[in-house]
Amino acid sequence: MTSGERRAEIDRQLDASLGVFDGRLRREQEVLAQQRGGGGGGVGPATTESGAGSANGAGAQGKAGGNAGGGGQSGNMPGGQGNGQGSSSGKTGSGQSDGQGDSQGGASGGQSGGASRGAGQGAGQSGGQGGSMGGGTQQGGGGRAPSDVPDGHDDDIVARQIREAAMKETDPELRDKLWQEYKDYKKNSKG
Amino acid sequence: MNPFKFHSWVLAAVLVSFLAGCVTHESRPLPQILAKPATAQIPESQLLDVGVQLFDPNIPTDEKEREKAGISADVRKAEARFMPNKLRETLESTGQWGQVRVVPPESDAMDVRIAGKILKSTGSVLHLEITVTDATGRQWLDKTYQSVADVRSYKDGNMTPRDPFQNVYSTIANDILAAREKMAAADLESIHRVAELRFASSLAPYAFKDYLSNDKQGQYRVVRLPAQEDPLYERMERLRERDYALVDTLNEHYSVFAGNMSESYNSWRKYSYNEIEAQDEAKRTALTRKLLGAAAIIGGVLAASKSSTYAGDVIGTAAVIGGVYIAKSGFDKGAEVKLHADSLKQLTDSFQSEVQPMVVDVEGRTLQLKDSAEEQYHEWRRLLKELYENETGLPVVQTPAAAPPAAPAAPNSGG
Fold first, then answer.
1. Cβ distance A164 to A136 under 8 Å?
2. SS3 of residue B96 by DSSP
3. Which of A82, B50, B94, B282 falls between 20 and 30 A from B24, CA-CA?
């Protein structure tokens, strides 16, 4: 075989290969055209299930199904929202208290400074105790918590504020009222 | 009790009640940024083709991390295909560029290549990391973009809404344009030539690798050009046309996919935006009410105990009761936070279940197409080699690390 014949033979093979490639792309384009054309029809009668079910299918049906799902979704969104509201009420306590952790810390820090100052003026014994209000059960400007007061490990932000105020209070009468308010609040918040 | 102090507490309690009911947060429409359109015809030799690669979805492998960030893997995968399409539409609309196509992540077929990574995407905010390089290897851009949603896009009755993050895409388009405008005409023409020679070299490195060189920065430069009548190069141009056709077809798949998910994605973003805003608002209000409620309780106790009058006792007691009420309303708001979080998760689950089959579908189709094309490319490499040997009479020494051509080269990509 001469060089020219060999080149012609290679070109023939290349043309054939390009033809196969072109054919493959043409078929793909036809499928895409069907998908573009047929997609709109799928929207109307659609449900979410039809979108999911058709997705693994081949060709234009997969597309129609996908669009159908889109139609279903629009209608489905507000429904999903409604269900969420209905089902999630009444079980928010723990999630919320976790979420407030940082903010509580910030508030406690502010109160802690106040505790140190109050203690210094009042009993003059607190020294470095000002920062201890986080634990809350030992020393403060006004003394320790009464024995009938629950420990503050499960205090929410409001209870903690009242507790801190009671711990800092040097007036015994006022302190008792704050502790009473604290106990009432704890009792009611549990109920 | 000091009357001033007493009245301060009462005033505070009243103020607390007022504030607790009035904490609001308002989102405003953003000024619209437009992509700069071409005002004069760009010479064809300088009209660069752009490939926008599918974005990196940036999905954390750890499930807890995903949950914490509120990331749904399927939604992110869908967004990694949807967002490049938005960027493509934006670039095309300017008339500043040649062909603009969405291409698989490994593709370097085009003159300019845009790669993106989704850093954060919700109905409320979008953060993207964008890198732009050209065929010579020169980096044009490496920048992070972020924006809040334009709430006008979420208004009911808006039949053809502007994408809520269109400002991000327009800004990227304008930045890429600014980078191009800094370059000399000769540089732009060189990019196009390098892209063609890199394609030729990927299919027949033994014949074309010497036309290009790498400089110290690793950038390609054209050393010399093939002769017009070079039989190998003539055929290469035919193959290049097929390569473009393949890129077009893949782009069309991504475009159809983006069109399919568009309506439900927009709905998801709109409703999730509402939930995110409401959740943030509820968080702020809940905390404010709790703190203010506590202040009112303490103030009420102090006021009542220090008061020497019946009226003072009554007001102090009322402040305590009011404080408890406000604090309780704070906890009720806290319940709302959880409720909005649950709603948001339900919305995402619902959208995920819808979009997941679409992602599987487009992944399957494009993978099949690339696999099929790769077989053809393999055959073309063989025929080109035979043609080269026939023309030169020299045997080709196979080099193991010939760079494969662009789009179909990596059948294992996520395309």
1. yes
2. coil
3. A82
Chain B residues with CB inside 8 Å of A81's CB? 271, 275, 343, 346-347
User: Greatest CA span in chain A, whole angstroms?
Assistant: 117
Burial call B262-278: b when 16+ CB within 10 Å, e when fewer: bbbbbbbbbbbbbbbbb
Pick the residue of A27, A81, A154, A174 with the most B CBs within 10 A to test the interface with B by mutation: A81
CA distance between the termini of chain A: 100
List of E strands, B4-155: 50-53, 100-103, 112-121, 125-134, 139-148
Residues of A in contact with B320 (CB under 8 A): 181
Provide the chain B residues 97-126 that lie in CB contact (below 8 A) with chain A: none
ipTM, 2 dp = 0.72
pLDDT in tens, A51-79: 332 333 323 233 333 333 333 333 333 33
Query: Given pLDDT bands bounded at 50, 70 and 90, which one contains residue B5?
Result: low
Handedness of CA B110, B166, B249, B238 (dihedral sign): negative
Which of A2, A5, A6, A10 to mutate against chain B (most B CBs within 10 Å)? A10
